[in-house]
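We close this part of the discussion by returning to an individual protein. Part of our work consisted of pairing the sequence of a single chain with a tokenised description of its backbone. The amino acid sequence and the backbone structure tokens for this protein are reproduced below.
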Amino acid sequence: MIPAYLYARERSIDSTNMPFQKGNSFWKLRKRHGPSIPFSSPGELQKKAQSYIDLCTRRTEDAAYWKKTEIHGKNAQKCMIQLYKPMSIEGLSQYLGISSRSFRRLRESEEFSSICQRIEDLIFAYQYEGACVGAFSPAIVARKLGMKDKHKVSSELKIERITGMEIR
């Protein structure tokens, strides 16, 4: 079945082909405008976010996403190290089945703003502290978190002509 808005474009656009008359007020009857929120309550969002956090911070054989080989000791013994999965808003959004843009829109709603802010603060702290202790690349995390190491250097050069001197 062709959606109504495409159906109207395929044919000539006039009021006889439109499903609703121009100037109608049916849109005012909606309880919520825009796309529907995939969560029934902030508590449901918190539970799903907590399961993502648990997935990222678990260190079991089945949950390890990355492994790193390091060489230790004078005998050059190889050691496999399990790495934590880094948390991010984009990763959380993928886990929840929504886009990061939808998550930002969700943050702007009154009902979900508090829980979204807490989630963002937790992920920020996780990334920042992970970079501080060397678990994550500090340069990448600083760029991701919007931290800039910027120095403004300014100088002024004044050139004056010297007269009355002889160079021998």
Remarks:
- Residues 113-132 form the longest helix (20 residues).
- DSSP finds six helices and two strands in the chain.
- The first strand starts at residue 66 and ends at 72.
- Residues 39-60+86-144 form a domain with the Topoisomerase I; Chain A, domain 4 fold (CATH 1.10.132.80).
